[in-house]
Input
Amino acid sequence: MGIYIMIILHLEGGFHIYFNWGIKQIIKLAESIAKNINEAILITDKETKIIYVNDAYCRITGYKKSDVLGKKTSQFKSGKHSKKFYTKMWEDINAKGTWKGEIWDINKSGKLYPKYLTINKIYLDKEINYIGIFEDLTERKKFEENIMKLKNYDTLTNLPNEKLFYEILDKRIHSKSEFFVVISFTIDKFTFINEKFGFDVGEKLILKISHIIEMFLKNEDILSRTGKNEYMLILNHTKNKKEVIQFLDNLFIEIKQNIIIDEQEIYLGLKAGIAIYTEGTKNIDILIKESNIAKEYAVNQGIDDYLFIDNRIKEMYIDEIELENLLRIALDKNEFFLTYQPKINFNTEKIFGIEALIRWKNSKLGYISPERFIHTAEKTGLIIQIGEWVLKEACKQLKIWHEKGFYNLSMAVNISPLQFKNSDIVNLIKNTLKEYNIDGKYLDIEITENLLIDRIDDIKRQLVEIKKMGVTISVDDFGTGFSSLAHLKNLPIDKLKIDRIFIKNYPEKDNGMMSKIIINMAHDLGFKVISEGVETKEQLEFLKKNGSDEVQGYYYSPPILESEFEEFYIKYTNDL
Ligand code: C2E
Ligand code: MG
Ligand code: MG
Output
């Protein structure tokens, strides 16, 4: 009876026992609580022999009451804790009258389970008794483990995520200072793979790549998935740069084997950047940043599979950041202007058009060529605003020239793939033609072959819309990209612009065969042909003889300012 009262007093949680209750009521309440409570209750005498267990105890441990009553609690120890642990526990109970903590025990079927146990020492009729109350932590532990996994591991690959990787790297950097490297990987053109083969294949590819990398790892190496198509690796098992190179070479041989997912062969470009830990580097950010810079450089440069960070790459990167910052404000600061390069028709010998080519003069960096900054403008998305400015500026100038009497002159404008993919190019062209009151047939847009690789239906739809306005469409730098002539046939294209590489070495190192073939095939398929980059009379005559319809190049004129073009146009027309 006394035991039950003690249980009530023991249960924390604000029970108020009304003292006008009779002892029977109190006993009833205690019995009911002990029976229904989720926590197990176990009471022993002073020799720790069990004298009471409740139903929850039997449920959690699997023992029947008859299995345990009269036995000593030590018989049910898990063996997972040391003798010292129990000695300390009993010291606490005897000194402070209580002990609380997590403990592992073993249930009837021999399974270890964690529990949170409170033991109190109490005196009943001057006799010592011990009350143990515990709850099973198995479910809670599982829950906590899951939460921990979600927080620290990537759900697809089960690899440590970025957060955990940084923690591991931080520990690594502050522990032993032996040689190790950080490698940053990316699957190049992953978005394209995802779009072409589907999300499912994309996910399988991510898993596949992580398995391939793991094949080459040793225990102490840590691979992590740090982004959609990004992995980072702490390579601990190599002892010097030579071994790292060996590791990477072996890995890339394997990566370059055909990767087949769902019966589809996938060609992928894995790129890697490597930063070597040097003693004294106590900042993980440097290692991460430098491996990422080297990786990005490998992606942009497109030749090497992997690159070690070096001063040259670092400088380029710093330049790149500066360039990016200056480019962001160049439009507002009016630093861009256009130059115009005439295009001549072989039949009429007249200047029928011009190509607008952007120029950038910055007060700090001087002239920066489009070859250098267009890529950055595309990478940052700035090309959309810049491209819009070019189109408007070119049309404005064309209107001026039409009004000045340079009738029938058409204007070619280079349009970046990004303008098709990330902006409403159709409406921009429509509105600009309207704004400057120009007939669409006087505008020619130069697109690149690379535009015609993915999202082709969407691109075709836009090209058709543009074509409906009377605008002509030319494929610039033809022959250097991926498209085939047959593929172009299904698109509303008027003209191919043969890249300069097919004529620049004529006649010394090139017999012009490629230009000849391209011209013939293009004509067979109904495209007009313009040859760009023509510098000499010999090149000009060769192209004329072999059927190129139009020509553009330094032979006639480099890209020039508007006033220079006006002079050129008048003089050229008068000389005809
Ligand atoms: P592109 O459109 O193929 O332009 C032809 C490039 O070749 C121009 O270089 C031009 O100056 C150069 N060129 C013309 N004739 C000759 C020649 O006879 N010999 C040699 N060696 N070069 C010649 P530029 O102006 O530096 O432009 C480079 C590229 O930058 C352009 O190639 C085009 O892809 C891009 N670009 C220029 N302006 C724009 C623009 O407004 N928007 C976009 N998206 N790209 C542009
Ligand atoms: Mg062009
Ligand atoms: Mg070109």
Q: What stands out?
A: The chain has 21 helices and 21 strands.
